[in-house]
Amino acid sequence: MSEYRSPALTAETATKLFGRTRSGENVFLHTVKNGSLTLRCIDYGAAVVSLETPDRDGVRENVFLGYDTLAEYETDSCWCGLLCGPVAGRVADASFELEGVRCELEANDGTSCLHSGSAGFSHSVWHGETFSSPGEAGVRFRFSTLPGQWGFPGALAITATYTLSGNSLTLAWEAEASAPTLLAPAFHGYFNLGGNKTPSIADHRLALDADRFMPLDERHLPKMPEPVEGTAFDFRAPRSADHTPWASERQLCLGNGYDHPFLLNSPGDPRTPDIVLEHPASGRLMEVYTDQPTCVLYTGGSLNSSQRFSGGRRGAPGRALALETQWYPNAPALPDLPQPVLYPGESYRARTEWRFFPTT
After folding, report:
1. I need a surface site. Which of 168, 259, 326, 332 has the fewest CB within 10 A?
2. Distance between CA atoms of 94 and 109, rounded to whole angstroms?
3. Has residue 229 been placed in a domain?
4. Is 324 one of the catalytic residues?
């Protein structure tokens, strides 16, 4: 897709009050525009509220699920557009051992800890600042934790930066720790490239450059990787992300659809996208490049009609999908996998880029 040329960057930024939390903290809405994209995000959970991108006719629509009010983010149960961490995904038995010490987390998903508990990065107020320079503009969010906060031993100083450049949105993470601790965050945005009027992702085409995936056990915990060959998890050629044709398969029953990590074949390779999502009806195509080893495909099995998203959209399974690029989920319970330990003196860095193109 390298032949596509985005309109020139206009580098418009704006910030205004979005609301006040129940505890009285101000939360601001930050808006960044360039020639083809408009990003809106808030200090609460450093959440992306919307991303507007054009279709093949140049009509811009929001391709993210988001809420209109802060109160809805405070009561959110599906991590809509939020940053998850310090450790995204599930941690078995809501605990892990680090350097001989047992660390206890909040069990907010049965006996497991999901997305670091009911608070974590997702339900904390970050400090956001807009920036612009020739060729790019964005929002830089900063947050610090205390030693032992949410059960994680090391204090963290972390930055998450959203940048618009040309036809792309990039999320770059940086962090340092005061003591050995776990760090494996993720962005939990829900995509529907058809915009407000497209009721599901069944008419999207998804490709994942992944030969292996992590099946789930009875507690919804990822296990050691297995080949995708001959299974419902083979997305190496583009196909619909709708799980309905495979709905009777045990793994999809366990996940209420797709809620599984895929091991990417060549993360960090800028020559080939790790993920491609296309909505042929609107002519929107998205390529994803990441340096993270996995992508959790979640087709929104927990979305339901009690949720009202911006644009009047009601929640429903399959209304949108999340593509969570991250470290190996549940790694602390799977010692044969590399562990996401951050030590003092080290710098954590991670990067994911979403590129948007119109198709004919």
Report:
1. 168
2. 9
3. yes
4. yes
Residue 7 lies in a domain: no
- Report the pLDDT averaged over residues 19-28: 98
- pLDDT exceeds cutoff 60 at 10: no
Give the type of residue at 152. F
> What is d(CA 342, CA 327) in angstroms, rounded to the nearest whole number?
13
Cut 0.90: pTM above it:
yes
Task: Find the domain containing 128 and state its range.
Answer: 12-358
- Active-site residue, selected from the candidate residues 61, 278, 287, 324: 324
CATH, residue 18: 2.70.98.10
115 among known catalytic residues: no
Tell whether the model's pLDDT for residue 185 goes beyond 80: yes
Q: Is the pLDDT of residue 162 over 80?
A: yes
Question: How many domains does one find in the chain?
Answer: 1
Catalytic residue among 30, 115, 123, 188: 188
Q: Are 245 and 258 in contact (CB under 8 A)?
A: no
Pick the range with the lowest mean pLDDT from 2-11, 84-93, 138-147: 2-11
> Tokens standing for 280?
């042929």
| pLDDT tens per residue, range 60-90 | 999 999 999 999 999 999 999 999 999 999 9
Which residues lie closer than 8 Å to 358 by C-beta, 6 or more apart? 4, 54, 55, 56, 58, 283, 284, 285
Residue 20: inside a domain: yes
Looking at the domain assignment, is residue 3 inside a domain? Answer: no
